[in-house]
Design goal:
The structure holds two protein chains of two kinds. Chain A is α/β, with parallel strands linked by helices. Helix content of chain A is 44%, strand content 15%. The two termini of chain B are 13 Å apart. The chains are: A alpha/beta, B mainly alpha. Chain B: One of its GO terms (cellular component) is plasma membrane.
Chain lengths: 426, 358
């Protein structure tokens, strides 16, 4: 700990010293409060990948990376303070990991010309890049998640969900309310009944919601939860002996931290995902060698290989690739936030590139364009095995129902454009 | 030597009744105003505005409002967050319904609407007192947050249930939205704070304030000497909610820009404002300022010192912050139960005698 403190202090001293060319990636993390269980692994993964690039390659394109961490506690007021305090350092990209902070930052980042990447969260209609110029949400968004879950259930039930009852347990916030619109449309299309059960922040009180589930016996339960809410929900589901294989969480409700407290009872719980699980990738050998073994891992260093850690790695990897693209386009190694935005818009992730980075088959291939800031929306399903304590993919990455989502995105982004007098760019 | 009444002759009742009867105090007040209006706007940047000054100004308005109710009238309230939410949502509905009207009018109207709601929830105070009233206002807090979450009309049927402040101006200067400049938002809030503070100060010095204090000190005795408890309590609720509503409207429209009611105006907000007036000093306008400044700046200062200068891990700093703020609150309550305002009062007494303490 002392060594770590010393290195961090030294790093800060060096960073505060002479002005060097560096690429600044602020990390608005939360390692405290009721959402810490979800925030810590992501922040660790995000920081570790950049540490790896610095240690192994000397940064991106020869320019070192500086990660500025700021604690938000998943609180929007602190998030705003963090944004204001870090943007002056030459921030290239924001990833707030909070839908509430995202809503706050969409207009601010656009006005300041700094891109924001909300990977699998935030405002879904930001997929429409011609309205949301500085906001990106590739590779998948909440409405893809909703549709992906329904598609998976359709597949399991022979393509027919009519007459079934599906409950949605959601965090009563902008985040949890996001999928309701899509699920309502889908329920009309496929003829199932949707029951929405809100859970208030922070989510420790869910007795009444699960009592209702016990009484109504819905065929399937979907969950949009985060932080401590996930653990409580899985435990409550176990308490009422709800069949776990009919309980599907969004990708934010599918990490080790969420299922471990319920022990054996959580076996069979499913969660959506947009990237692969586990640590069986060549990249992890490098991580072990350059970051973990040399004591440079962020936080306690005990999260390596967990689902949310992987997601942090993935987020950092996409950011680094976009920065590389930006360097290529601008011909300048020390890029600005505007270059970064152009790089993100031209980003193309291929299978070959993923393999080159040491993450073969980790995530789907996709490309970003001016019209489409949301990638190709491929969603997979994972399942928890309590005996071996591992998540495994049970359904490959599959496309979602763009017939339903497309018009909804056009409508919502159209509303935003008319409210804020935005001319479509492309 | 500098700070005393001697030699400062008053020749009219108006002079004798002014807010700051001591010359030194009066000039200090003018200097503070001059710095706040004349100098700070020119050295303003986004960080200073959004991290320190805007929250301070807005919380100070809320603290003045709550201080009128709790400190001056003795009616304990835990509904501040809910009333701020009323101000925020009223402001949002007005902003979206009448886009061409000046923000000044919207904010004042939002305060007025909150005053009406406050009076409604103040009615039980005629029958119940103390802890029981605190519970009744707690019910208001939860009811109002539930209402704004439940009824889509309040958030204009937006998919996320959030309200977002559109761009609005005052005399052509953009005040809300991402393109508002820091100095404009600062001055806008400062004007409201100054006016609110002057109104509150003069209300509490006059008949209204005296009836509030009579009710606070002993309601039966007050009634016997001719104070109408109905009028005193309801005016306290109305004035208090008016200020709290203004602060809620500013909090949403100028400071945050996007609000989710459960998170921003939850029970924590009620407690935060209550702590501000307890630490600052109950029954003191200066105390409201001091308490707001203390609780707004302390976390930021600790963060800057811990994370930015010393380079400690952010989670350790965040945890330390809780420990230090908590310890300071307890220390203050033990060493100075009457808050920062009492320290200020003592300092003034000492100054009056200085340099001859006997």
């Amino acid at each position: 700990m002392k060594l770590k403190l010393a290195t961090v202090a030294l790093g800060a001293a060096l960073a505060a010293g002479p002005v060097m060319a560096d690429l600044v990636f602020p990390s608005l993390s939360y390692r405290t409060g009721p959402y810490a269980a979800s925030g810590i692994p992501f922040a660790d993964g995000y920081a570790d990948y950049f540490t790896l690039l610095n240690e192994r390659d000397g940064g991106i394109g020869g320019v070192p990376i500086r990660v500025v961490e700021c604690e938000t506690g998943y609180n929007t007021e602190k998030g705003v303070e963090c944004y204001e305090s870090t943007k002056g350092e030459g921030a290239l990209l924001y990833q707030p990991l909070s839908t509430g902070i995202t809503y706050q930052l969409i207009p601010k980042t656009t006005a300041d010309g700094i891109p924001m990447h909300t990977m699998g969260y935030g405002r879904t209609s930001a997929k429409n890049g011609s309205v949301f110029s500085h906001t990106f949400n590739y590779p998948a968004n909440y409405w893809d998640g909703a549709s992906g879950a329904i598609n998976y259930l359709l597949e399991e039930n022979g393509g027919d969900l009519s007459g079934k009852k599906i409950a949605l347990v959601y965090h009563n916030s902008a985040y949890g309310k996001e999928p309701i619109r899509t699920l309502e449309e889908l329920s009309k299309k496929h003829g199932f009944e949707l029951v929405a059960l809100p859970v208030d922040h922070p989510g420790q009180e869910q007795k009444s919601q699960w009592l209702q589930i016990r009484r109504d016996r819905p065929d399937f339960v979907l969950m949009w939860g985060w932080g401590v809410m996930n653990q409580v929900a899985v435990q409550e589901a176990a308490n009422i002996r709800y069949p776990m294989e009919n309980f599907i969480g969004i990708w934010w409700s599918g990490s080790e931290n969420d299922v471990l407290p319920a022990g054996e009872a959580a076996n069979g719980y499913k969660a959506l995902t947009f990237h692969n699980v586990g640590s069986d990738y060549p990249l992890y050998d490098d991580l072990q060698k350059y970051v973990v073994d040399s004591g440079k891992a962020a936080g306690a260093g005990d999260q390596v290989g967990s689902v949310l850690y992987n997601r942090g790695i993935y987020a950092a990897m996409l950011a680094a690739e976009a920065a590389r693209k930006a360097q290529e386009i601008s011909g300048n190694a020390d890029i600005t936030a505007a270059d970064m935005r152009d790089g993100m818009e031209a980003l193309e992730i291929t299978e070959a590139r993923m393999a080159e980075l040491g993450l073969p088959n980790f995530g789907p291939a996709f490309s970003v364009s001016c019209e489409n800031h949301g990638g190709d929306a491929l969603v997979g399903v994972t399942q928890w095995d309590a005996a071996s304590k591992t998540w495994s993919m049970i359904s490959e990455f599959k496309p979602t129902d763009s017939d339903v989502i497309g018009p909804l995105i056009a409508e919502d982004s159209g509303n935003y454009a008319s409210e804020n007098n935005i001319e479509p760019r492309c | 030597m500098f700070y005393r009444e001697a030699g400062d002759f008053k020749t009219s009742y108006i002079d004798d009744n002014q807010t700051f009867p001591i010359k030194f105090d009066r000039y200090r007040y003018y200097v503070v105003l001059a710095v706040a209006f004349g100098i700070i706007p020119f050295v303003m940047n986004d960080y200073l505005a959004n991290a320190l000054l805007l929250p301070f100004l807005i919380y100070a308005i809320a603290a003045i409002g709550l201080n009128i109710l709790v400190g001056y009238c003795g009616q304990v309230s835990l509904g501040t967050g809910g009333f701020m939410a009323v101000g925020a949502y009223a402001c949002y509905k007005l902003m979206t319904a009448f886009p061409d009207v000046s923000m000044f009018i919207h904010v004042i109207l939002a305060g007025g609407i909150t005053a009406i709601v406050g009076v409604l929830f103040g009615l039980p105070s005629l029958r119940i007192k103390g802890f029981y009233l605190a519970v009744a206002t707690l019910a208001a807090q939860f009811f109002l947050v539930w209402l704004f979450n439940r009824v889509p009309w309040f958030y204009n049927y937006s998919a996320s249930g959030q309200i977002n402040a559109p761009e609005r101006d005052v005399f052509g200067i953009v005040i809300t939205g991402p393109n508002a400049s820091a100095w404009a938002t600062y001055l806008f809030c400062l004007i409201f704070l100054t006016i609110c503070a002057i109104i509150a100060r003069n209300l509490t010095r006059g008949t209204t304030g005296r009836t509030w204090m009579a009710i606070r000190d002993m309601d039966i005795a007050a009634e016997i000497i001719g104070v109408n408890p109905l009028k005193a309590k309801l005016t306290a609720f109305a004035v208090s909610s008016f200020f709290v509503g203004i602060s809620g409207a500013l909090f949403f429209s100028v400071y945050l820009g996007a609000v989710e009611v459960g998170e921003v105006f939850g029970i924590q907000k009620s407690f935060l404002v209550l702590f501000m007036i307890i630490i600052g000093g109950l029954g003191s306008i200066f105390g409201s300022f001091a308490g707001a400044a203390f609780l707004v700046t302390l976390p930021v200062v600790l963060k800057v010192v811990g994370a930015d200068w010393l380079g400690w891990p952010t989670d350790i700093v965040a945890h330390l912050q809780l420990v230090i703020v908590g310890a300071l609150i307890i220390m203050f309550l033990i060493l100075e139960p009457h808050g920062l305002a009492q320290l200020w009062r003592l300092a003034k007494e000492k100054l009056r005698l200085w340099p001859f303490p006997h």
